[in-house]
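Objective 1b: paired records.
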Amino acid sequence: MSHKCRRVAVAQLCSSADLANNLKVVKGLISKAIQDKADVVFFPEASDYLSQNPLHSRYLAQKSPQFIQQLQSGITDLVKQNSRNIDVSIGVHFPPTQQDLLNGNDRVKNVLLYINHEGKILQKYQKLHLFDVDVPNGPILKESQSVQPGETIPDIIETPLGKLGSAICYDIRFPEFPLKLRSMGAEILCFPSAFTTKTGEAHWELLGRARAVDTQCYVIMPGQGGVHDLRDPAWEKQQHIIASADSPKRESWGHSIVVDPWGKVIAHADPTCVGPQLVVANLDHELLQDIRNRMPLWNQRRVDLFY
């Protein structure tokens, strides 16, 4: 292994509407990542919860701040117990602020947090591109009904793995965003996701490899995987909903991967495994620099024409 290698862990899970149980799964995977000597562990988007509909999401988002606080203290506890540092990137939700509500906007925020080994939040990136699509022979999903779009390109973060550019799920389909992150200095890009099975089967690996080749970056793709349990008896009782076998179901593609800057998948989740799992890979910065030196795309771009 090159002396410039760093170890990354990619967590795959199947979040439910039960935040307390999701937190337990997340902490267990962080503990495993520490045992596996990872420097940073990446979780999917919506690791705090998945909901039945926009109303349910607004209800659950009120519990997200507590989920985040407990996660922060959980990280510092695990670091102390194991005498080994680890940083955590994780997708969660924020409830609307008082100002949002005054402006008549009660939608939640889909956010990616970067939390360091001291439990400090170094970045909050709010998802820019929302998944409003009618997939052929698949689901109709309108994320904008329940989620506020972000307005800001995130700064590059200095991490134990190198310079990280943050994005979320549907952002991966807009190459100008990762190209911008690379221009800002990114060496690693992450796309925590909850891809549908239809779009995942068609485009998940293709998009990850394409963005890696476009940007000459490592691409880290933690995915939600499996059939989500969206039942929530307390909320259903409050809403006078009679639970039935026809309650909303959602399935995510999983297939979490790590792609190198040449577009090669260097680690992937086991598609036959049901339940949470962790994928570990070494990121070689000498390889990254070698690829960039041999094919100096950023010196050859026709910025006089295209930008």
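Objective 1b, second protein:
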Amino acid sequence: MLRLIKIEFQKLWLNKVSLVLIFISFILPFTVLILSSIKINFFGFFTLELGELGIFNFPIIWHITTFFASYFKFFFAIVVVSMIGNEYSNKTLKQNLIDGLSKKEFVLSKFYTIVFFSLCATLLIGIATFVIGMYYSSYTEATIIFREVEFLLAYFVKLVGFFSLCLFFGMLVKRSAFALAFLVVLYIVEWLVFWAAVYVSGTVETAFKVKGFLPLESMYNLINQPIQRIVMTKFPEKTDIMYDYAVHWYEIAIVLGWTALFVFLSYLLLKKRDL
């Protein structure tokens, strides 16, 4: 595994664009640190400081930071599809196979790199969240601090699943721009399935359950939006806005299932393709 990751690192190190995108994808999640210190002055009448609103209290902070940090995954997604596009355009794929790398090892080298960067991103956002929480949170008991740390696991699985999807699209079309365009196509297809399910079942609730098994929606469902939850903490009497924001094992299982399928299909495409 380490040998395969090392091979990918050597390729990425020679690609300046990929290095910049990797740097951005790691740095941008730390904007939550800047967000926590923002003070908004309303014409001298009062000053609003986000860190003092309680949204950075434990355990809710794990939910908030992982949700917003997940939107920065698109930068590394460009790196993933570029890794595949460059292999074909630079003829390095064929050279790797000539040098003794099997097609299975080639796909695994990409997947291991995805897992490695996803793990690094998860550790970084975990450290940032812990630092912000310890500074702003009113709760310092260990049981409360680590109560919803499973959002980090959901964040990691979400990244691995999404990048594996990008890996598959990269293998499918062999061009970075087209691979990213397929994400938009898939997003549209999932909504078409949703409306078809509404038509067949007659209920929106059932349609959302069906959509929850699809790739992009299942990844999104791992970490639901925290806005409603923030409102709930400020207005606990509003029971009508209560919703299920927890991380569930079956949601993780669905995304892991898609991840395994995308990696397998990537290998199958490479195995069948005439290079």
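DSSP finds 14 helices and two strands in the chain. The beta strands are 39-42, 46-49.
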